[in-house]
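tokens incoming
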């Protein structure tokens, strides 16, 4: 695979965005894959040239075990099970040791506006880990704690995925 999308989602909204981004990539890159963060590899396959990472903003940034537990309780799920989020996965992710593009996104509340973004936190960790980052972390908006996404966000996510495919074609530069 040339592109890999890794995502975390408590209520499903980030998962939908991740799929739309993946579709945008897969329509333009020979080989693109998508993995939930709990089953994503922490050593990237050698063919991966673009890594896209997304998760929900919880408590002003990337989720933590406590915020995921709160989210699971909100969703009516048992909250004690250990979970892996983007934050933990990025700490385990091995530095690529070669040029690999990366881009990050999150979902978060459009209104009321709350400061903080999981995508910015993930951007910083990837940058520190030696990845080549796209200029901006992207946010997609939900209208309530459990969603749904704002109208038009999945189309915007698809278009964003298409634009990221340009990185592999050499069409987009930081
Ligand atoms: C425990 C918790 C904390 C949250 N904190 C924030 C926050 O600080 N800022 C924000 O914009 N949204 C916050 N949200 C809303 C989430 O961003 C929203 O649930 C998420 O975008 C939904 O994505 P998902 O369906 O993939 O889990 C929070 C949600 C939960 C459950």
């Amino acid at each position: 695979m040339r592109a890999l999308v890794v995502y975390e989602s408590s209520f499903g909204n980030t998962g939908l965005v991740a799929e739309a981004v993946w579709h945008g990539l897969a329509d333009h890159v020979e080989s693109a894959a998508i993995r939930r963060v709990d089953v994503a590899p922490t050593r990237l396959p050698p063919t991966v040239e673009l890594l896209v990472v997304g998760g929900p903003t919880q408590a002003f940034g990337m989720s933590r075990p406590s915020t995921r537990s709160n989210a699971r309780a909100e969703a009516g799920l048992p909250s004690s099970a250990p979970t892996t989020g983007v934050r933990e996965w990025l700490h385990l992710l091995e530095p690529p040791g070669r040029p690999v593009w990366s881009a990050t996104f999150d979902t978060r509340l459009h209104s009321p506006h709350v400061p903080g973004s999981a995508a910015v936190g993930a951007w910083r960790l990837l940058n520190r880990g030696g990845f080549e980052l796209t200029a901006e972390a992207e946010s997609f908006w939900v209208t309530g704690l459990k969603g749904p996404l704002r109208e038009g966000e999945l189309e915007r996510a698809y278009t964003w995925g298409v634009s990221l495919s340009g990185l592999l074609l050499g069409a987009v530069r930081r």
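note: DSSP finds five helices and six strands in the chain.
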